[in-house]
Specification:
Length: 402
């Protein structure tokens, strides 16, 4: 337990309401047949996050700081910095609204409709409550407190989703068959969705920045690798549990995670409603903390700000991201409209960041003997191809919906 580190925050970031919803729908539509896609996404996530962690520990710099240092041409440098800041900053604000809305969905299944009318406008007070909780944890500015708080929430999510999956009494033989790859055309969009919800670009920035808060020398790399692998596998098991729980639902009209809790009631009684609500609330809160934190680290690194978690500039960034998330969520703006730009930004950013990470991890002048070996490069290139495909697919989806 003493060696648990930033990997937990990575897991907390990618197990958000979006992951809960995508995994639920995967289970409802295709049963256990897409469990293999999660294995693929977990492997991709471990490979990229290990690179980010190694970069952070060896250089004692975040990914954005390293990005600045590798380009001498000021025009190229500032174009790249502009793309990264705009995509991460605006994209995280959009996802923050979705994260808080997901936490609200969890509370809503217990509290009903948590809204009040002020001056003719309806405000969701659950969004404000989640925002205050995230604000307190971030404002404390103590990495250990933040880390331990998220460990508790992630363990809470693990228990709720795994217990729910066990209660469904799944057919083990069908589960094992679900680990056999199946690239049927009708499943392709869902496969891409499962990978896209696990391999998140801002997590690469977050991880590279956070590892140096805990580990200072390359001798700590084995601990960092263990932390990364264990935490991401735990997140993967949670995602699989959600698919298994979703597969038990007979109602194919399920559209989101809120419907999941309601649809399980006839099968598991009223207790399932509270179990799923707790898990969804925890997913929303953990992601609501990590998205603003990641944005602040990116802006800090790109603009060369000094100071740590308690610096005024650092706090101003995550406060603004959190404020926008609470505002959009409490006003009831449709999630799909909020996240539409984020999808576009993610589509542009993920291949760029994965490509840069792979390139910089081969620079011996920077990393010496800790640069990538051929096996890591092969894995990285395969993942880069997948991220390029994901990027074009995300961009095309947004364009097609306009």
């Amino acid at each position: 337990m003493a060696n648990i580190g930033p990997g937990t925050l990575v897991t907390a970031a990618f197990i958000g309401p979006g992951t809960v919803t995508v995994c639920t729908l995967a289970g409802v539509k295709f049963g256990y047949t897409l469990l293999w896609a999660l294995v693929l996404s977990i492997i991709a996530c471990v490979v990229l996050q290990e690179m980010a962690a190694r970069l952070g520990i060896v250089t004692q710099n975040g990914l954005s700081e390293v990005l600045k240092s590798q380009f001498d041409n000021k025009i190229v440098k500032w174009i790249l910095i502009g793309i990264i800041i705009s995509a991460i900053f605006i994209g995280n604000a959009a996802y923050e609204a979705g994260n808080i809305s997901g936490g609200v969905l969890g509370l809503s299944t217990i509290l009903g409709n948590p809204t009040i009318n002020i001056g003719g406008y309806a405000f969701n007070y659950a969004s404000f409550a989640i925002g205050v909780l995230a604000f307190i944890l971030l404002y404390i500015g103590n990495y250990k407190i933040l880390e331990r708080s998220l460990i508790v929430l992630v363990l809470g999510m693990s228990l709720t989703f795994v217990i729910t999956a066990i209660v469904t009494k799944p057919d083990l033989s069908l589960i094992f068959k679900g680990f056999v790859p199946d690239f049927s055309s009708e499943k392709l969009v869902t496969i891409i969705g499962l990978i896209g919800t696990t391999v998140v670009p801002y997590n690469l920035f977050l991880h590279a920045s956070l590892v140096k808060e805990k580990w200072k020398t390359p001798s700590d790399l084995p601990l960092a690798r263990k932390d990364t692998i264990v935490a991401i596998i735990v997140g993967g098991v949670m995602s699989m549990a959600i698919i298994i729980a979703g597969a038990a639902i007979q109602n194919t009209e399920v559209q989101n995670a809120a419907d999941l809790a309601k649809s399980l009631e006839p099968v598991f009684g009223t207790a399932a409603k509270y179990v799923l609500s707790l898990g969804l609330f925890a997913a929303g809160v953990t992601s609501a903390i990590t998205a603003p934190l990641a944005a602040a680290y990116v802006v800090k690194g790109c603009l060369g700000w000094k100071g740590g978690l308690k610096s005024k500039k650092f706090r101003s960034v995550w406060m603004f991201i959190l404020f926008l998330g609470v505002l959009f969520s409490s006003l009831g703006i449709k999630s799909i409209e909020i996240i539409q730009f984020a999808q576009f930004a993610n589509g542009l950013l993920l291949p760029i960041i994965a490509g840069f990470l792979l390139w910089v991890m081969n620079r011996k002048v920077l990393l010496g003997k800790y640069s990538n070996n051929w096996k890591q490069n092969v894995a990285g290139i395969l993942i880069l191809i997948i991220t390029i495909f994901l990027g074009f697919r995300s961009i095309w989806k947004v364009i097609a919906s306009l």
